[in-house]
Design a protein that fits this description.
Layout lengths: L1 H15 L5 H7 L5 H32 L4 H20 L23 H6 L2 H11 L6 H20 L1 H42 L1
Length: 201
């Protein structure tokens, strides 16, 4: 149980990537008055948390409505995580989520901070996989998500200070390291899904 908790915690931290989102948050909040920035960060983190929680609890109904199997979800999730990880290791213009580099002139609401920066496709797929583990495991995954949300708040509320203290090169190196770890986890998820599919033939 402890191993599952830490594995899930690390996976969700990697796919939501709070450290990698520091430059995006700093850029998006540049036009927001300093007195409101903390409030905006808390609001966006809360929106992302609620969305992921809803997907966690109603993920099975979502899968049933679309006639998706756990195997297809694992394979598809592995592919998505792999693509996200590649963009983390080999940065492209627009960042991991393909956002533009232009400053946002108005206060951001939901997009792009809550979605897709925190509750992006890879995070949604991850919590859907959590929901497929059964009702008995749900308290564990709710605890994981809650702890991850606390990490978001701690990191993002200090985003400007982190970027100033560590500098862009260190933040970039850290994001690439997380991308490398996420690549391995994505391949493992993909292989697990393929093993299940091959056994079912």
């Amino acid at each position: 149980m402890t191993q599952s908790f830490f594995q899930s915690l690390i996976l969700l931290l990697l796919v939501t990537d709070p450290f990698g989102n520091v430059p995006l948050f700093v850029s998006a909040l540049k036009q927001v008055p300093p007195a409101r920035r903390a409030r905006v960060i808390v609001r966006e983190c809360a929106i992302a948390f609620v969305l992921l929680l809803l997907f966690m609890f109603f993920g099975q109904f979502f899968m049933a409505a679309l006639q998706l199997s756990e195997t297809s979800l694992r394979i598809g999730g592995g592919v998505i995580l792999f693509l996200i990880a590649l963009r983390m290791v080999f940065p492209q213009a627009g960042g991991v989520f393909g956002n533009g580099d232009d400053d946002i002139a108005v206060e951001p609401f939901i997009v792009p901070l809550a979605i897709p920066a925190l509750a992006g496709p890879s995070a949604l797929v991850t919590v859907l996989l959590f929901s497929s583990q059964g009702a008995l495991a749900m308290p564990l995954y709710v605890a994981v998500l809650s702890l991850v949300a606390v990490v978001w708040l701690v990191v993002l509320l200090s985003a400007e200070r982190l970027q100033r203290v560590l500098g862009q090169p260190v933040m970039t190196a850290f994001e690439r390291l997380m991308g490398l770890i996420l690549t391995a986890m994505a391949i493992e998820m993909l292989l697990a899904g393929m093993r299940v599919y091959i056994r079912s033939l």
